[in-house]
Amino acid sequence: MKVPFYNAYVGSASGIFKGVYAVHKSNLFVKNIDGLKNATNKNPITSMSWCDGAEDEIMIGYGSQLVKVYNVQSKTFTFSDDRKFGEGPIVGVSKFKGLLMSAVESGIVRMWRENDVDVITIESGGHLDRMRHKDGVIATGGKENDLKLWDIHTGGKKLFAAKNVRHDELELRVPIWVTDIAFIPDSKKVAVTTKHGHVRVYDPSTPMRRPVVNVQVPEQALTCIAYSYKDHHVIVGSGTGQMNLVDLRSKGLVMNKYKGFVGGIKSVGCSLSEPYIVSVSLDRHFRIHHLLTKELLFKEYMQSKLACVLVKSNFDLTPENYNSDEDLVSDKEEKEESAGEEETVYPTLNLNTGATPEKRIKSSSSPKKKHKS
């Protein structure tokens, strides 16, 4: 069966970049786009993001500090750069009006343009776990390095620095460990998750440096966050495999719990036009949940260790949104490319109908040997 171009992209811990095509009440298909020949656990994909607002290019960051740009329309890599800076793997990448950005674990953020030797660097002030960007503003955070916002237009001037919350009821200092960051659409607010189970919202437009919303998911070490289809709500995932919907209004409220996970959740992505949640986890599964009904729509096992997932803001499961006249991928091509990684594209159980698609069985030209009785 042939499929159109992909509606989700996945990066693996072995450096393999995959395209995923999912259609409602149908199969889910996966194809290795890049990295199969040089697959190694020493150079994982650690970060992916859309370039600018058009969402037609994907910027990919690797553990070796290699940076690539993939064009979704032409299905080719248009840029590659492996200049070293700082220490540790890349924890965030982005592109804004031709300006490339990447950040490493040691706390350095660099900005540069293609074919330009001049590089602007920002010292974030400590260990980084995540760097995000939106509309000319860079957000950084990590272990004992609280949320900071930087202005690209002024060459990296600091716009905002969060202040830690007050001491707890035992008058003990609350440790800081920002693990992921999400910008709230149509506002200047920024939401973060922490290793200690907090979901916090900061508003740089006010004089207040402490969070305006601070809600805790009990006994969970949160690892990822994404703004959802539902206004003023985010999806958060934890290292123990728990995914929740969190209401950021008023004082905040932990709501829906989505089931089906075995390992810790590495990355989540949400459609802003439809109620879908896409996630990857340590159990090597790619999942799609319905945000409102909490139903598990797709669950696909992939042989690789999955690290991050990326979907468009208008992600949908209807085939009408995709061009059926494009060059398509056959099952034979998928099997041949996945053979080097020992990865087979398994059929997906349609959880809406309960029907199981036909199994794909490798044909063999040689007859089976009969055993002597």
From TrEMBL:
Segments for region (Disordered): 322-373
Gene Ontology cellular component terms for the protein in this record: nucleolus; preribosome, large subunit precursor
InterPro entries: WD40/YVTN_repeat-like_dom_sf (IPR015943), WD40_repeat_dom_sf (IPR036322), WD40_rpt (IPR001680), WDR74/Nsa1 (IPR037379)
BP-aspect Gene Ontology terms: ribosomal large subunit biogenesis
SUPFAM superfamilies: WD40 repeat-like
Ranges annotated as biased composition (Basic and acidic residues): 329-338
Coiled-coil spans in chain: none
Protein name: Putative wd repeat domain 74
The species this protein was found in: Triatoma infestans
